[in-house]
Every structure is written in C-alpha cells, then in structure tokens.
Write a structure and sequence with these properties.
Layout: H1 3-16, E1 41-46, E2 58-64, E3 67-73, E4 79-87, E5 92-97, E6 107-111, E7 116-118, H2 123-138
Antiparallel strand pairs: 1-2, 1-7, 2-3, 3-4, 4-5, 5-6
C-alpha cells in the first residue's frame, strides 16, 4: 500500500468515525427524536458550533422513520454517503457507507452526542443530501434488507 492509499484510508476512517472519541463535551438532549410523522426531517451536526469551518467534521442526514441517508464530510474536501438507522436514545447512526466505486459497503457508526446541532443547511449540504439519496436509489438492490425499499419520498 502506498502513502496516498494509506492516507486515503485513514481519512475515510476519520470521516466514518466522526464524533467518536472527540474531546468535546457531550450535549444534553439532542434534537433528534424518533420520526413518527411520516415526513422526512433533515439534520446537520458538526464538531464546531459554526457551519463550514475548515478542518471540522460535519454530518448531514435526512431521516424518514428510523431510516437515514446522509453524508459525513469536512468542508472543502470530499464527502462520504451513508444509509442507516438512527437510534435516538443512544444518539447513534449505524449503517453502511455507500461507496460509489465499490460493490461492498463499509459499516458506519456515528456518535452524534459530542456534536453540535446546527440550524441551517447550506446549498452544499442540500447538494450532498441529494447526491446521497440518488446513490441510495441507484444501489437499492445491493442494500441490506433493513433499508429496502427506499422511502417513496426519496424517489421524488
């Protein structure tokens, strides 16, 4: 494995582990609640209280029921799409990364508890969500059973 591949793997691991082992104080009572309304809801969390801060990690996702699709990213860098489930009690998103160039999906486990909820999604956040939903739709047949079928709201 060359240096670039090693660096890429380490960066991917950091993106997927966003929120794990951070020294930020855990926040009492996140805003994420079980979605019982049948409507999708969108959330943005970050290592910083301010959006779009370089070298700070962020997670943006759309929730429909307990299923979520979203992206983990660092501003001005690449992003990784994922699909999974939200456990609002443990404040964790677990699922799989939607790697567009590979057939297999790498597992994710994102701890939201040390992250800050942010109010406003940027156009870039919206763009990433749209791209991730499209990826999930394209790869639907390859997804584990618990994320099939894709919610009809995401097909529109």
């Amino acid at each position: 494995m060359n240096f670039i591949q090693s660096l890429h793997q380490k960066r991917s691991a950091m993106l997927l582990a966003l929120g794990l082992g951070l020294s930020l104080q855990a926040m009492p009572g996140l805003a994420v609640q079980p979605n019982q309304t049948g409507q999708e809801e969108t959330y943005l969390y970050g290592q910083s209280r301010k959006p779009n801060q370089v070298q700070q990690g962020y997670v943006v996702f759309e929730q429909f029921g307990s299923t979520v699709v979203g992206a983990s990213y660092y501003p001005r860098s690449e992003f990784r799409c994922f699909i999974g489930n939200l456990n609002s009690q443990s404040e964790r998103v677990t699922g799989v990364m939607l790697a567009s160039m590979r057939m297999e999906q790498a597992p994710i486990n994102i701890d939201l508890s040390p992250l800050y909820p942010l109010e406003q999604l940027s156009q870039n956040d919206q763009r990433m969500l749209t791209a991730c939903k499209q990826t999930a739709i394209k790869r639907q047949e390859q997804l584990p059973d618990q994320w099939q079928p894709i919610p009809a709201a995401w097909l529109q």
